[in-house]
Amino acid sequence: GVTISWNDETWSAIVNYSTYKKENNSRVKCTLYFEEKVNPPSSSDAVKDYIIEKAPEGTLIEDDETVDHNMRYIGLNPNNYIDIGEKDVDGNVILWRIVGIMNHIKSSEEDSGGETYLKIIRGESLGEYTYGSGHPSWASSLLLKQLNTYFGNMNSDVSNNFLQVLFDVTNIRSIPSEVNVLYDYEHGYQLGNYIQHKPWLGKLGLLSLNDYGYATSGGLTTSREVCLNISLESWNKYEDCFQANWLYNSLNTRGYWVMAYQTSENYVYSVGPSGNIFDYYANITRAVFPVGYLSLDKKIDGEGTIESPFILIESL
User: Fold this and answer.
1) What is the DSSP letter of 234?
2) Cα(183)–Cα(139) distance, integer angstroms
3) Which residues contact 87 (CB under 8 A, 6 or more apart)?
4) DSSP H or E run through 278
5) 170-172 and 256-262: which strand pairing?
6) 176: how many CB neighbours lie within 10 A of its CB?
7) Tell me, what's the pLDDT at 37?
8) 139-153: pLDDT as tens digits
9) What is the mean pLDDT of the segment spanning 115-142?
10) Are 211 and 80 in contact (CB under 8 A)?
């Protein structure tokens, strides 16, 4: 007769008529009732839910409203500290901080979908270094060599946490007013005049320009919405935009390098001590805060505070 089986993966019924013969089988009607398919929580969902649950109100935006719908920490000093096992020469823990939960992170040019990973930044600077000299290029920069040396000296238990992914390196002449447009430029989703998107494959890089912009919560005078529609080059005129931004207050010294440059003037961009993004010569020194990506295929514990930072433990 006729047999019916169920496919959980495609959420569909399979009706097999191969042995049915009209003369040997009577007609029978049957009715199928479908319930809404509910996907079981993945390990990445579990980590995301845990992080959101631990975040005090106002310190995490669930959606940056980009095409990738990333979730980012915002505000003056959110509870986004994470211990990945790094220690200084005296045995003191060096905490990192979670920039956000990023979607569609790719590991190759051929990767069409990408994965969801934690983007983190080291909470302490490696020191002040030059980007390089002459014509700026990330792949041949002195700064990249410095990061490679730092990574090579890491304990393997720490370095093995970092994933090899495509970092967005952008050659951009002028920064647009809207941070969402800047995001599209830096990710190669939108092209403009004098803009080149040059993905680089590696394990440690630097912040993108848009990361700095999206970290603001704004203030009473200038709201977050307004801040995100002001060019980052002009943020020094809007105190609410940079003072309510942990990527300014928690990290800034004399300024630190980001992963964008301008070949037309042989300049490289950095977060400046006045709260705005500006471009300057590649051979000056700026602070260096390494950035990397972690898998969400782990259990997580902690509160995200300095006293009780998040910690990713054994794989699920």
Assistant:
1) G
2) 21
3) 93, 94, 155
4) strand 277-281
5) parallel
6) 19
7) 53
8) 889 999 999 999 999
9) 90
10) no
